[in-house]
Description:
This protein is an all-beta fold. It has strands spanning 18-28, 31-41, 48-58, 69-74, 82-91. It has no helices and 5 strands.
Amino acid sequence: METTTVKAPAGLRAARKVREGVVISDKMGKTRVVLVSWNTTHDRYRKVLRRTTRFHAHDEKNESHTGDRVQMVETRPLSKLKRWRISQILEKSA
């Protein structure tokens, strides 16, 4: 029987998912709720649908606040709901 080894990709950090969204809640300590939205088309009717998803993201220094546009990157599970980490703030709210 043959044994094969699976190698991890060379740029493992580059393989992480990146999302962009708007902070909708900053009431928790070091945690932000980020709303990510995108467009998709209906399979049958070809109507453009707007979809949204809420992610819980880790913000170590509590720098982002409600209304900020942020970029977040996928990370290991940090808690029951947090699997994302805010990597940078793209635009501050007014």
